[in-house]
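Sample entry (260 residues):
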Amino acid sequence: MSIFSINPLGIQLIVSVLIGIAAGFVGAFMVLRRMSLVGDALSHVALPGIALALIIHINPFLGAFATLVFGIFIIWLLEKRTALPSETLIGILFTLSLAIGILITPEPELLEALFGDITKIGAGDVIITIIAVPLIIFLLERIYKGLVLDVISRDMTRTMGISIHRINFIFLFLVAVIVTLGLKVAGTLLMGSLVIIPAAAAKNVSTSLKDYALLAGVFGAICAAVGILVANYYGLSPGPIVVLTSGVLFLGTLLMKEGK
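Predicted structure, serialized as tokens:
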């Protein structure tokens, strides 16, 4: 049976769960590296790309991905050449991008760009997601050691001959990919929350670093699936419901942590 013969809700669930897994896994490292606001900021950088793609009538995915890659390259370059931390540079870039995006995005599509609409997911989006998510997880596992060592001691990574600038670029690139994939689920305003909140919830109840990353992926999948189902049942916009589901899960894990 072809995946495209599955009913639309089934396709939405498959895509959202895959994105939730990858978002949670990526988010685990972002929380660990104190980059929680980076995912949120980068999702805003996609807005001008979506706007330009709509104006010239190409797939908004391509426009969003192009501006995100350009954005992370500028951030990576400036981080190497200035003393400013990456979160400061991203904060500047995201506010400028959001302002430009709101100004140039055609008004009929602005709401969808800001909050997402997974009901409009196409065959190409499904194929890209199925291919991209395993690659994201594979590449994260490849740079796992460098990411963890950088949190412990940047001097240690230099001593061991690990190129932290290269690892940072790969990591930011993977963040850009997962943010792009998730734009139809949660939009440019909310996608950062899908990356961060399940990871923060996992941190509340994890007992080891390995369990933390895996649990973040599981939580991301649960939040995405439950959010899509609840939104479909009540006829609500999926993006905000997915994020609210993540928030409920976070509060639950926080209460569990406080109760220990």
